[in-house]
Amino acid sequence: MKFLRLKLVGFKSFCDQTELVTEPGLTGIVGPNGCGKSNLVEAMRWVMGESSYKAMRASGMDDVIFAGAARRPARNSAEVTLVLDNTDRTAPAALNNADILEVTRRIEREAGSVYRVNGREVRARDVQLLFADASTGAHSPALVRQGQIGELIAAKPTQRRALLEEAAGISGLHSRRHEAELRLRAAEQNLERVDDLVAQLE
Ligand code: ATP
After folding, report:
1. Which of the two ends of the chain, N or C, has the fewest CB atoms closer than 10 A to its terminal CB?
2. Which residues does the annotation say bind ATP (predicted)?
3. Where are the domains of the chain?
C-alpha cells in the first residue's frame, strides 16, 4: 500500500483546498517556521484515526478546524483525504476491493467526525485497522514527532517491543485479538444471564 496524495480543506492552517502529491522516492516539505509543515503530518495522523486531541496540539478536536485569520472567517468543518494505492490488496476486501482507496475523515463543529472509504461511511475502527495491517497509522513509529528520538532512547523495554511488533507487521493482529477478547467476555456474560433465567424458570 502506498500513499499517493493528501487532500485537505479547512484543516488547521489549510483553509483552502490543498493537495500534497507524494511522487515515487523521497518527498521533502520545506518552509519557514509556522507555515504548516507539522500540520501536514498531523493531518495524516488524524485521517488515519487519531482520537487524542492532545496529539493534535489542540484543546479539543474542533480545534483542528480552521479558526480564522485576519481576513478569513473561521470554517465550520474540516476534511482530510488520504489517497492510497491498494493494488497489492493490503486493505481487507470486506472494506473495499478497489485499486485506489480514498480514506476521508470529516469533522463538523460540535458534531464529531465521520469516516468514509471511497464514499462509503465506515467506523473509525475500520480505518485504524486498515492502517495497522499496513504497519502504519496514527501511532505508527513511521511518523516521528519532534523530540520522539530522545523519548525512544529513554523508553522502557515494553515500549520498545511495541516498536518491533509494528516493524514485524503484527500490531493489527494485536488489535483484533483485543476486540475478540471483548466480544468473548460479552458472550460469557450473556451466557451467565441465560443460566440465571433458566434457573429461575426451573
Ligand atoms: P516549525 O517549523 O516552527 O515547526 P511548522 O511549519 O511545522 O513550524 P505548524 O506548527 O505546522 O508550522 O503550523 C503552525 C501554524 O498553524 C500557526 O501559525 C498556527 O496559528 C496555525 N494553526 C494551527 N491550528 C490552526 C487552526 N485551527 N486554524 C488556523 N490556523 C491554525
Report:
1. C
2. 32-39
3. 1-138
